[in-house]
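Quick one:
INPUT:
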């Protein structure tokens, strides 16, 4: 039997999945249109993951045990299509559509009684403006198939909406946007979970610190307690959708009187969330659970043991992180990673003001806070 496995997408965070699979003694093939740090770790299949026919012909000859992608929305549907065509363990494409098309996602959530903010799928600025006048400004526009916060904008009036609409549309392969009412709530949270044999468990959550212009995350802190009703909705969306297995990543807005689903994806969280942060906080082996499902087995999805440990994922904007401080920060106990985006071959995005990210792990919040205090002290001395 072949020991070959295929990873779709050669982005910077997929390298952790590649190394995990190599530790399991598999020969790993990474499908990506160009060489990257991740493709250099494995055997490179040079192809666009959206070119299904080309990828199908290439991976069919490898007789893979499975095809997988961890932290890429773009790869979720190709993984489902290819797995189905090759008769490999996977999720049905029509199910994956509910997790990758935001308009379908919101409509499905509404059908289950899961709260979502008012929305409309739009293809022209006039349609978006008509929606905004009905709901009131500000309004958020985003690609139905958007990833990594690209193409997400908040418009305060008709003129600003008309200016931002083509920019947002430029990030949509489908050529469609979702216009949605804006409500920042009291807080925003990210929610990580695992699904096995069609049953989902919400595992851990973080609180987001956000800023607009554009809409990006400045920091995430774990763990964050969730209302039980939100946990129930998160599990229900996945359970009823028909998703058979995988790691999930969701975002919710929590207000004084309730909560709203912002998005839910059938892939792990980026920036090492599913590979390192969520397993650390929850003490559950996310990759091991996914791996057993990919081999056709099942792992009982369950609530994590308590107490959960703590973590921080902090983003720096350009100019916030002195170059002279980087080596000293990396050497601090509790610092898992400090990386500039430019070092990870990110596609240039002029709207992305995030310049670097920092990950701190600690046994509790006090330990994380102490490490962050030392980081800030180093930065102040280096400025």
């Amino acid at each position: 039997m072949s020991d070959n496995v295929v990873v779709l997408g050669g982005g910077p965070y997929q390298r952790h999945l590649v190394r995990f699979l190599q530790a399991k003694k598999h020969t790993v093939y990474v499908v990506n249109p160009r060489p990257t740090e991740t493709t250099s770790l494995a055997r490179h299949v040079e192809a666009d993951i959206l070119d299904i026919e080309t990828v199908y012909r290439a991976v069919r000859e490898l007789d893979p045990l499975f095809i997988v992608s961890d932290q890429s929305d773009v790869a979720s549907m190709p993984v489902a299509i290819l797995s189905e065509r090759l008769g490999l363990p996977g999720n049905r494409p029509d199910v994956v559509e509910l997790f990758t098309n935001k308009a379908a996602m919101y409509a499905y959530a509404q059908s289950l009684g899961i709260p979502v903010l008012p929305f409309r799928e739009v293809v022209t600025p006039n349609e978006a403006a008509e929606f905004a006048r009905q709901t009131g400004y500000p309004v958020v526009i985003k690609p139905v198939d958007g990833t990594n916060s690209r193409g997400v904008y908040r418009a305060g009036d008709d003129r600003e909406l008309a200016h931002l609409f083509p920019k947002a549309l430029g990030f949509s392969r489908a050529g469609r946007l979702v216009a949605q009412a804006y409500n920042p709530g009291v807080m925003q949270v990210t929610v990580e979970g695992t699904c096995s044999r069609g049953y989902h468990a919400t595992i851990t959550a973080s609180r987001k610190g956000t800023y607009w212009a554009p809409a990006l995350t400045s920091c995430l802190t774990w763990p964050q307690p969730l209302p039980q009703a939100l946990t129930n909705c998160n599990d229900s969306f996945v359970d009823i959708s028909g998703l058979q297995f995988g790691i999930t990543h969701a975002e919710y807005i929590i207000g004084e009187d309730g909560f709203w689903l912002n998005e839910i994806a059938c892939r792990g969280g980026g920036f090492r969330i599913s590979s390192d942060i969520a397993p650390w906080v929850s003490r559950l082996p996310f990759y091991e659970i996914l791996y057993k499902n990919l081999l056709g087995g099942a792992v009982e999805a369950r609530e994590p043991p308590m107490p959960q440990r703590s973590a921080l994922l902090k983003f720096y904007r350009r100019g916030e992180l002195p170059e002279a401080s980087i080596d000293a920060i990396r050497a601090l106990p509790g610092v898992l990673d400090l990386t500039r985006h430019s070092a990870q071959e990110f596609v240039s995005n002029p709207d992305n003001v995030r310049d670097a990210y920092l990950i701190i792990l600690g046994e509790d919040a006090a330990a994380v806070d102490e490490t962050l205090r030392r980081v800030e002290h180093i930065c102040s001395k280096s400025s």
